[in-house]
Amino acid sequence: MAGKRAEVMEQNRARLISAARKAFAEKGYAAASMDDLTAEVGLTRGALYHNFGDKRGLLAAVVNQIDAEMASRAKGIGDRAGDGWEALLAEGTAYIEMALNPEVQRIVLLDGPAVLGDPSNWPSQNNCLQATKEAVERLAALGMVQPVDPEAAARLLNGAALNAALWIAASENPKAVLPKAVKAFRFLASGLMLRTP
Predict the structure, then answer these.
(1) Helix or strand or coil: residue 28?
(2) When comparing pLDDT for 63 and 47, which is higher?
């Protein structure tokens, strides 16, 4: 009985996240009605509060889901770029390029920081930070990066990619800003590379 109840609760949670993701992308966080959202999936406002606490908690769950998808996609792109330095640059560049996605722009890069605060403090960003730190540690073990603290390097790389994406999302012409942001990110990140004589 407890297993069935947990399964139903998980299904309700997934339905609410899916409906909220659609509503937040189409209308924005402020304009999305929780009554409309819960009615659309056949649940009550009580189900929303039980699962997420409030509308802000629901946004955090949606942001976490999208951010995890972004990280997974960026990692896949990095993996296809090969081992080493190019993989790390490809991951950061892919993250920045995702700022052109309207859903990512509105939910993660505009509404997310406005409602949830500094993205560098989000749990999903901490996961990205750990992955970048591990990549820097691998590169350091191979003698490919300058002798710097891996966490410091990871924080600066992630911060640069995140701020580039935020800049793109907030600009009046994101497509014009993208190549400038990517070029600057790659130059900054390349400063960590160990140059051999």
Answers:
(1) coil
(2) 63
